[in-house]
Each structure stands twice: as C-alpha cells, then as structure tokens.
Amino acid sequence: MRRSNMLAKQVISIRSALSLGFVSQLWVDTTSWMVLVIEVRPNLLSGELERFLLEDVSRVGDVVLVQDESVMDSEYKMLGLETLVGYNVVTPGRRNIGKVRGYTFNINSGAVESLELDSFGISLIPSSLVSTYALFVEDVLEVVSDTVVVHEVAASRIQRLTKGFWDTRKGGTSIDEPGEYSDFGSKRVRSDHSQSTRRNFRNKKFRPKVREMEDDWELPMDYL
C-alpha cells in the first residue's frame, strides 16, 4: 500500500460503529523499516491527536477498521520514529538524489518496501506533473537529521515511476539516461553522516490520552 492511499481515511470502530477520526500521519521505525504508529485527528485540519499501532488495524478499504476505541487509550513513545516525507536523499559523498514524497509498505506486516522520490518532497503535487522515482529500502544506510543516506551504487538502481509534465516541458533527462539527476538539481546537503539515528522503538505507555504540547502544529506534508 502507498502511504498516500492511507492518509485521510476515516477510522471506524467495529464494535460501536463510531468514527474515531481521520488518518493524518504514519510513523516509521527506520531501524526495522516498519510502519508502527498511525496518527489520527478528529478532522484533517485541527484537533487533539491520538495514536494507535498499525497492528491494531483490522481491515483497510474505503475506511480503516479497528476493533474499538480502546486501541487509542495509550500514548506511545515516539523516539526513533520518522515521518520521512520531505527528507533529503543523499549519498555518503553528499550527492543529492532527491526528496522523499512517500513510500510503499505491506499493510499486514508494516514493512516498508520502497521510498518514492521526486524533486520537491511534497506528495500533494500530482505525479503527472513531477517525475517520480522508486528507491528500495535495502539501499538505505541511515537516516540522519531529516536526511536519508543511501549507498553510492543506489543511484544506478533507482527506477523511474512517472515522467512529469513539468520535466517534459523543460526537457529534463531521465534518471536512466546519461546526465541523470538533472531533474533533482545539485543541492548539497550538510549533515554529519557519522551520527547514527538507528534507535529502537519502545512501546511504552504514559498518559491515557495524547495531547499536543505546542500551541501550533504542523500539517503532514500531504496537506501543505
């Protein structure tokens, strides 16, 4: 399943048939490359957020079904989890590959299968307008400071998914052709790649409700 296909789906309790909100974000453990936590809000623009585990999902179709409201009774420690969307993708030599606009994952196991890249990192932009590419997670070395570091040879294994209208108009080259990455530009990303963010996710319960600690909150990248 694509991440974008999961976002904005309504979450319904099977037992009570009540709406529990809408999926606003997914959180990935980049050590195991598993989608672990689903974030829900009463509407897509504002409201108190709550979270539950992907393993608590009973079924996904036009809506997301969970057994009952109790799946959201606990708070989960988010240390080590990443949203990934908007993150820069670079090689150890700091060659810019693109930005993450989404990913695909197995809805049953939560395993992330591939990252979807473009030049903006905003999945709200249709793939018909901007060229998109797939990168397998096996090529990822680490995630550091909003940056995904990949093997140098990963660049040659990237697969083009779509040829965007904007790139066609400006005569951008394919990533499979000589002169690859011209779609992505030559931005250099500064980060300390020696600092690893491989951290373990601990399923630790705190308060019975999750509340935002800040006055302001950021929309998921899909709604920017």
From TrEMBL:
Residue ranges under compositional bias (Basic and acidic residues)?
A: 185-195
Protein name per UniProt: PRC-barrel domain-containing protein
Matches recorded under SUPFAM superfamilies? PRC-barrel domain
UniProt source species:
Vitis rotundifolia (Muscadine grape)
What residue spans carry the region label Disordered? Answer: 177-199
